[in-house]
Specification:
- It is a single chain.
- The chain is of the alpha/beta class.
- 27% of the residues lie in helices and 20% in strands.
- 44% of the residues are buried.
- It is built from eight helices and eleven strands.
- The model has no long low-confidence stretch (mean pLDDT 94).
- The protein has an eight-stranded mixed sheet, with helices on both faces.
- It is globular.
- It has helices at 15-21, 50-56, 58-64, 73-81, 173-179, 225-235, 256-279, 290-301; strands at 3-8, 27-31, 46-48, 86-90, 94-96, 110-115, 151-156, 160-167, 192-194, 204-208, 240-249.
- The chain has a single domain, classed as Spore Coat Polysaccharide Biosynthesis Protein SpsA, Chain A, CATH 3.90.550.
């Protein structure tokens, strides 16, 4: 089985990168940016610099733009070309625990805590022992209506496994400014899944290789890039399971006001988006800027003959 780790970086190799390099049975692919040091090197992995990305697909490179995390979509294409069966999309500030990537449920039956809601979306964080906070990208208008009383045990077969993160969790800027949490999630609350779309990120997430043709980190939509990608693939019928934390998030320095501005598009449209996607997944195009929709089309072109 071919297993590939994909990330982007503008930094010298971090502690997280050093650990991912040593993962037995995985191949690491790092996508560089213009700010990445010119002499960036890996001891064990593939580094794809800006020139190589442009040679691969100049149109897509131009449509995505530079100095943005969405460059990692090139890593997804690299993984596809490598014949990846499983792709792990990670951030370079997530330090993996021992056993990371070993207990994967993708493509097999797994028993989960299963939550049913009548709302358009389910917030996975609300089902944990830190239920006062919420996942980045969950529609804020639904927060007061979250209800986890309809819980059962169910067997599902996921295409995506979104592992959680201890430390600084993936919450939006409003939540982070209000709570500034340092989390230790109870592993007994996992794995979990639900009957409606739910946000998952691209910082510690495992994907079946078969969804790569539909999974794209939309540029030019701020911090909704991976969130809208998550909603889109679920609208297409792919299933996600949330698993116990497998990393410690030692978060890179962020300006929370800047983050909030980058999330505003989601505050404004996430509820409408998930409602529209439930009708037709391609309704995502209504919410994308022209350049983002163009990049999505160019990305999907690589899978036309797959």
């Amino acid at each position: 089985m071919q297993k590939v780790i994909v990330t982007t970086t503008i930094n010298p190799p971090t502690e997280a990168i050093h650990r991912f390099e040593r993962m037995d049975g995985w191949k690491l692919v790092i996508i560089g940016d213009l700010k990445t040091p010119k002499d960036y090197q890996l001891k064990n992995g593939i580094y794809v610099g800006p020139a190589e990305q442009e040679k691969y697909d100049k149109e897509l490179s131009d449509a995505i733009g530079w100095n943005c995390i969405q460059r990692r979509s090139f890593g997804l294409l690299w993984a596809h070309d490598m014949g990846a069966d499983i792709v792990a999309v990670v951030d370079d500030d997530n330090i993996p625990y021992d056993g990371w990537g070993e207990d994967l449920s993708i493509g097999r039956d797994v028993e989960v805590h299963y939550y049913e809601t009548d709302l358009p979306a389910l917030d996975p964080v609300g089902a944990t022992n830190h239920n006062h906070i919420w996942h980045r990208g969950y529609p804020l208008q639904l927060l007061a209506k979250r209800d986890y009383t309809k819980r059962s045990r169910k067997v599902v077969r996921p295409d995506i496994q979104a592992d959680f993160w201890n430390g600084d969790p993936d919450i939006d800027a409003v939540c982070r400014m209000e709570h500034a949490p340092e989390c230790k999630f109870d592993p007994d609350r996992f794995p979990l899944a639900g009957n409606k779309m739910s946000p998952f990120n691209s910082q510690n997430t495992f994907l079946s290789g078969r969804i790569l043709k539909d999974y794209f980190l939309f540029p030019h939509v701020g911090r909704m890039d991976d969130i809208w990608a998550s909603y889109y693939v679920q609208a297409k019928g792919y299933k996600v399971v949330y698993a116990k934390p497998s990393v410690y998030q030692d978060r890179n320095q962020h300006n929370l006001i800047k983050d909030m501005k980058q999330e505003y598009l989601g505050y404004e449209h996430n509820l409408e988006l998930v409602t529209d996607l439930a009708v037709d997944p391609e309704n995502v195009l209504k919410y994308l800027p022209e350049r983002s929709a163009q990049a999505f089309a160019l990305y999907r072109r690589h899978f036309d003959h797959a």
